[in-house]
Amino acid sequence: MTRTLFVGGTASHVGKSWFTAALCRLLRRRGVRVAPFKAQNMSNNSYPCIEGGEIGRSQAMQAEACGLPAMADMNPVLLKPESLHGSQVVVRGRVWRSVEAEQYSGYAELLMQLATESYGRLASQFECIVCEGAGSVAEVNLMDRDIVNLRFAEQVKARALLVADIERGGVFASLVGTMELLPPSQRALVQAFAVNRFHGDRRLFDEGVRFLEQRLRIPCLGVFPYSREIALDDEDCLSIEENSGESDVAVVRLPRISNFTDFRPLGAVDWIAKPGARQYRAVFLPGSKNTIEDLLWLRERGLAEWVLRQKAGGATIVGICGGYQMMGERVEDPHAVESGHGSVEGLGLLPVRTVLEREKVTRTVEARTKGGVRFRAYEIHMGATVRIGGEPFAVVGEGREDGCCVAGAMGTYLHGAFEEGGVAAEMLGLPTVETDKQAMYDRLADWLEEHARSGVLQRLCG
Q1: Residue 398 binned pLDDT confidence (cut-offs 50, 70, 90)
Q2: CB of 225 within 8 A of CB of 205?
Q3: Residues near 310 by Cβ (< 8 Å), separated by ≥ 6?
Q4: What is the mean pLDDT of residues 411-435?
Q5: Residue ranges of the chain assigned to CATH 3.40.50.300
Q6: CB-based contacts of 305: which residues, under 8 Å, 6+ apart?
Q7: Helical (H) or strand (E) element with 155
Q8: Cβ pair 401, 310 in contact under 8 A
Q9: pTM of the shown model
Q10: Are 268 and 247 in contact (CB under 8 A)?
C-alpha cells in the first residue's frame, strides 16, 4: 500500500518545498520509489512535463530529487496569475481556462476530483507520495473548498508534518494557533512539527521545544538551521532577495515575472523596479505571464527609457521569453490571448516581430550557440516570433533557429540557457555560479537527516 506524507505550513514561504524535496531525496536514497505531489499550486514559475504541458517549477525540482522527469499528475492544478484578480488555470499540464478569483470556488469540487485522480495514478506507480500543501493549513475561510491542504491529506490518509519559520518571528503563536484552528479530524493527521530557519545555537531553543511538544502533544521533528549553502528552484517571487547594489547585472522585476530561476546561475543580481543612476554591464528582461501589460508597465514606470539609456551606456540588453518579445518591433495579440490592446509597439531593440497565439508551446530542448556551446533548455510561451535581421541566439536540435542577436542586444525563448556556464561566457563574458543539482539534493537530504530526531523521522516516514 502506498504511504503518503503531507508537508504543510503555518504560512507561505516557511520551507514546505524544502522539506518536501528533502524527504523525496532521503527516501530515494533509502531505496524507496517515491514521487512528489501538489494538488494545486499558484506560480508563474513552471517547467515542461515529459508528456507535454507544464507543472509548477517546485514540483519539477522535487521530481528531479526523486530521479524522475516532471509529470503532469505531480501538480494537476496550476494557477498562473494574470492580474490581481484572476489566473490562468492549467489542469494536468494544459491550459484549461482563465478564471476570476470570485469564480474559482465554483470549480473546487471538480478540481478536487481531478486532483484525486492524478494522485491515484501516481499512487499506483510509487511506494510513497510526498504531498506539499500551499500557504497555511489553517485558512479557515477556505477550508470547505480546500483541495491542496489537510482536507486533501485527510482524503488520502496522509501522515502530516507541520513546518513553521522561526526567522519571521511568532513561531509559538503560529504553531499553537494553527493547531487550535484545525478541526479534530485534521489535527489528528499532524504527526510532528518542524521549526525551520533557526540562526545561532539551537540549544537555546530547547525550552521552546519542550513547551511546544507539551502544548501541541506531538513531537518536534527538529530545529533546522538556516542554510545559504543549499539553493533550490523557487516556487514564487517571494524568494527574490533585495538588491546588493554591487552587481554588474540587473534584472527588471516585472509585475508578472515568470521563471526568474533563469538568473540564479548569475549569482547576486540587482532587481530593478524603478529607474536608477547605476550603469550595468548587462540588463535582463525576464519572462512574463502577460507580455503586453508588462511592456506597458515598463513605459509607465520610465523603465523602457531606462533600458535604452543602459544600452547607450554600454550595457548588453538580454530578453528571455516575454522579455525577448518586448525587445522586438511589435507584439500583436489578434486573439486577445493576453489583453484587449490588440497590438503594441515594442522597445525596438531587436529586428523581430511577435504574434501571440492560442496554443502554448511547452518543451525541453537541446541547443548550441554559434560558438559551439551545447546546452539543455526549455520553452514555455504563447507566441511565435519572426526574426527579420540579426543572427540567431542559438540553434535548437537539428537546425531550428531560436532568438536574435545584434550589437548590444539579444533575445531567446530558451529558459535555462545561462545555467550552462559556457553560454554566459560566450554571449556576455560573464561568470556563472556552477551548480551540481544532484549534489545539492544530497546536501539537502543530509541537512534533514543531520538535524532531525531519528526516531521521529522514522515514525513519520513509516
Answers
A1: confident
A2: no
A3: 250, 279, 280, 283, 317
A4: 92
A5: 3-231+439-461
A6: 275
A7: helix 150-155
A8: no
A9: 0.91
A10: yes
Residue 410: CB atoms within 10 A of its CB come to 26
Query: Of the candidates 416, 386, 394, 390, which has an alpha carbon nearest to the alpha carbon of residue 405?
Result: 390
The neighbour count for residue 269, using CB atoms within 10 Å, is 22
Residues marked active site are found at 321, 415
- Lookup: cell for 184: 479534530
34-43, 129-138, 355-364: which range is least confident on average? 355-364
The DSSP bridge partners found for residue 249 are 282
For residue 185 the three cell numbers come to 479530524
HSE of 92, CA atoms in CB hemisphere, 13 A: 14
- Inter-CA distances, 166 with 7, 102, 361, 390, 449, Å: 17, 33, 41, 52, 20
Q: How many CA atoms lie within 13 A of 453 on its CB side?
A: 14
Confidence of residue 227 (pLDDT cuts 50, 70, 90): confident
pLDDT at res. 361: 93
Mean pLDDT, rounded, for 16-28: 98
Contact present, 71 and 54 (Cβ < 8 Å):
no
- In the structure, what pLDDT confidence band is assigned to residue 342 with cuts at 50, 70 and 90? confident
pLDDT of residue 239: 52
Question: For a pLDDT cut of 90, what percent of the chain falls above it?
Answer: 86
- CATH fold label, 3-231+439-461: Rossmann fold (3.40.50)
Q: What is the CATH number of domain 242-434?
A: 3.40.50.880
Per-residue b/e over 393-406, b at no fewer than 16 CB within 10 Å?
bbebeeeeebbbbe
HEC profile for 187-200? HCCEEEEEEEEECC
Beta strands in 94-219 (DSSP E): 94-100, 128-132, 159-165, 190-198
User: What average pLDDT does the segment 264-289 reach?
Assistant: 95
Cβ count near 308 (within 10 Å) = 14
Which residue ranges does the chain devote to CATH 3.40.50.880? 242-434
DSSP, res 243: P
